[in-house]
Amino acid sequence: MSLEIPDSREDCRIDREHEREQLKHLKDHVGDEIRKAKDREYREKEEATRPLKAHIGEVEKADRRQEDMTDAALKETANTILREE
Fold first, then answer.
1. What angle do CA 2, 5, 9 make, to 5 degrees?
2. Whole-model pTM above 0.70?
3. Which pLDDT tens digit goes with each residue over 7-43?
4. CA angle 11, 15, 21 (to 5 degrees)
């Protein structure tokens, strides 16, 4: 009676392949966690700066409105002067 001896090289190859797959899975998982953390950090930063960006936008809009009013007044003055000539 003899026992069948498994092909140890094939077993080793399968074990190495399994270990590589586990390592790849672990790397993928770590990469996913890093991406989630970076995304969370980006969202928190954007949320924190939103009020400041809104204020800057309002100031810029007010500046443009003031420039438009000044331009309109200058244009009206120029038209008045040209009509009187």
1. 165
2. no
3. 678 888 888 999 999 999 999 999 999 999 999 999 9
4. 145
Structure tokens at 80: 């008045």
* Token pair recorded at residue 47: 């949320």
Q: Give one DSSP letter per residue of 5-27, joined into a string.
A: PP-HHHHHHHHHHHHHHHHHHHH
* Residue type present at position 63: D
Backbone angles phi, psi at 3, to 5 degrees: -90, 145
Percent share of the chain, pLDDT over 70:
91
Rounded Cα distance between 76 and 78, Å, is 5
